[in-house]
Amino acid sequence: MASTPDFELGDSADYIGDYLVMKAMIVQGLRDFLDDDDLSDDQGAEISEDEEVFTGQTWHDDDNQAGDAAIGTGSDRKCFQHQIVNEEWFLWPDKIVRSSINLPTVVDPVIDILLWLLRVNNVVDVPLVKSVKLIKDAIQQLCGIRSIPYEGALGHRYYVNLLPDIIRQEMMNPRIRPLLHFYPEDTGVELNEAQQATCWLEELDPELLMPVIRLHNQDFFVFKPALLSSGQACIPFRWFTRGRKMYTKAWSLWPVTRELDRGWVIEDFRSFEVSEDDLLVSFRNWDSSEATSGLPHANLIYGVEHELNGKLQPWTLTNPSEGNQWRVRASGARVYAMPLWLYCNDTSGNLSKKWNKHNSFLFTAAGLP
Questions:
Q1: Which runs of E-coded beta strand occur in the chain?
Q2: What is the pTM of this model?
Q3: Gap between the Cα atoms of 41 and 87, Å rounded
């Protein structure tokens, strides 16, 4: 049974009567619209025409099509000219187009009905179906998320939204990006957010964490030698924040002299904390800095000791001559690690007798507060 709005005490009889008349008119008009076989042909011809162009800033519907768009009892549609750049409804030209595109199921009949309802209610500047489609395609190409089809083991088809596209949208969203945390945070006993938890701060594999900080126009990567203001060299391996400063946990790095050259030995059985105030020279600037004069080259790493006076083992976390793999891949670009909360949810309430198992994998950024 169709529901009616909750009228309040004081609503006039004219107001209630207008509502009922409008409802009856829409219902009858909708029936006529659905029963009109010729309408879909007209709309199909409208969609196939090529008079509309997109200039990059303004959408234009040919004036000759204005008469074709007046359907039902609504007023004739005016020439649709909307600026794509709209502060309130960006990326969409206006509220009408946004509502048309963001229906749960955007198919031709649904858009037809929606736009027809707007016209019979005398809404001006209602776009053509073709306009809505062109805008939708343009926005999808610029900012959409690609879905990749796969064939399941039982022959069924399923789709996966491309993860890089989703992350790119999160990173460029001006409402989301300023709130994201990428480094673990040391807050002592206080625990309010994910980045403050022991798992992220101490237990997670350092290779999965943020590999770099940018300081003094230098990029300090984990697993690569760095020189401290005290003259000591170290290997940073875990960046984190404390208060308003960056810190790292680091391994000791000691110079060793051999017959023909000098290099470094890493002691990963002992670690210490280093403040951003103490970082002086990064791996990339090592050979060009006067502060490293007289020290072995940063790429001469003989190996690593896992215990005091233990056997020297090969260093495998990086290629000593190239540095951190993300430094090589980034070629100067910023590098971020983005932890995710991953969920799996089945389709509850599925009463079909046919086997129709459906699991959705969802995620959200763990760095959001």
A1: 53-54, 59-60, 147-151, 157-161, 212-215, 218-221, 226-228, 233-242, 245-257, 262-275, 279-281, 301-305, 340-346, 359-365
A2: 0.65
A3: 37
**Which runs of consecutive H residues, i.e. helices, occur in 146-185?**
163-172
Q: What is the pLDDT along the chain (369 residues), one digit of tens a residue?
A: 444 444 455 555 554 554 455 445 444 544 554 455 443 443 333 333 333 333 333 333 443 343 333 333 333 333 333 444 455 665 566 666 666 555 544 556 777 777 788 788 887 777 777 777 777 777 777 778 888 999 988 888 888 889 999 898 889 888 899 999 999 999 999 999 999 999 999 999 999 999 999 998 999 999 999 999 999 999 999 999 999 999 999 999 999 998 888 999 999 998 999 999 999 999 999 999 999 999 999 999 999 999 988 899 999 998 888 878 888 888 888 889 999 999 887 765 556 666 666 778 888 899 998
- Rounded to an integer, what distance in angstroms lies between the CA atom of residue 100 and that of residue 326? 43
